[in-house]
Amino acid sequence: MIDYFVFFTILAMATVTYLTRITGYLLLHNKVLNPRLGKVLEAIPGCVLIAVIAPAFATTNIANLLALAITLLLASRFSLLPTVIISIAVTALLRHYIPY
């Protein structure tokens, strides 16, 4: 049975996420960016990733600490997308198999 409140909440969140992404594209697609602004925009995904994983530094949960160490190792070796995908999978496995 589908909970309609949850369904519409997820749908609204997806819509807002899409609108924030497409708005940036629509505003900047005909603009020539200066190299400094281009570098700043390229750094944003990494900053967001750090903001997401930074609370894991303050945990005592072994699974989270191991996942954090693995994520940092992956980030030093791979680009953002493989790092995120592998880190999510590793974190899920560690949280499942290592009790708190």
UniProtKB/TrEMBL annotation:
InterPro entries: Brnchd-chn_aa_trnsp_AzlD. Keywords: Membrane, Transmembrane, Transmembrane helix. Pfam families: AzlD. The keyword Membrane applies. The chain crosses the membrane at residues 6-28, 40-59, 65-94. The keyword Transmembrane applies. This is AzlD family protein. It comes from Entomomonas asaccharolytica.
